[in-house]
């Protein structure tokens, strides 16, 4: 049986090292997760992915049919943290200045005064983002990548932490505009909530029937707690073999015959950051190939464009990513002289840290 010290060595960190996520921060994440799960029943993996994106300093795209709880998930996450929250309802007549802000002439001061837009918040909820025009959608590009807004030659920094949680309906629905490739690439992960199980839907009728659980939801963490968690995620170690494995997965999308557009280098960076956050959520200070594999579909699939032939064969980007994960060799501990990663086979054992 593999001991903790053995697993640490295989993860590429000193055997004496302990998980860098302290008990207080672990408790903070547990409180936030429990708060969100009070509203989103029967979807623990969706809630975990949302927290993973938050701690990895990314942005989340929630895509699904109306009525399955896309906006509810975004609101529950925002209300569980004591920070500034703004909601933007995207419509065809929404202007870019409604998001970023505008400079207005002040008669008394005889100068322009900047009025911040809705993007100036720590958590921004973009509801039905693909109902706005591409020009308005592009207003988010600079803020999502560089965490700043430039208006009339003046640059304004956005607060920290900063996260955009956007919802969108499937492109085939009426009145929607496909997100451009550059916009989709800014989102670290895309998730589909899906329909609840009959048991979860029955419980939803009992809980949501009389009053919305969002009304009683109170903040269970502060913004500075989230910043501490983000700092802990940044300190998570990623061995060279694990980094190479992430690069191999992304590179395979660029040469796959069923794809006419593969994942970008930004996708590789997002995959690595998400893997580090997943490791921290599991109570580890080092990432494993398992972390990369578990997040590959959510991080990569929305960035890929299948070929026309693949679409005729009803091959989805998610299926292609799953196939790539199955065929890409997983690094073994023997590589890099034992300082690589853990091979996901029984002889190495699965890590059993305290976790979250």
Summarize, please:
The chain is of the alpha/beta class and 356 residues long.
Report on this structure.
With about 350 residues, this protein is α/β, with parallel strands linked by helices. Helix content is about 40%, strand content about 15%. The strands form 5 sheets. Strands 3-6-9-1-10 form a 5-stranded parallel sheet. Strands 2-11 form a two-stranded parallel sheet. Strands 4-5 form a two-stranded antiparallel sheet. Helix 11 crosses helix 12 (about 265-280). The radius of gyration is 21 Å and the shape is globular. The model is unreliable at about 1-10, about 15-20 and about 335-355 (pLDDT under 50).
List the helices and strands and how they pair.
Layout: H1 4-10, H2 23-37, H3 44-55, E1 60-63, H4 70-79, E2 81-82, E3 85-89, H5 96-100, E4 101-106, E5 111-116, E6 123-127, H6 134-137, H7 141-146, E7 148-151, E8 154-157, E9 163-168, H8 181-186, E10 189-191, H9 198-208, E11 221-222, H10 223-234, H11 240-254, E12 259-261, H12 265-281, H13 289-300, E13 305-306, H14 308-312, H15 317-327
Helix pairs in contact: 2-3, 3-12, 10-12, 11-12, 11-13, 12-13, 13-15
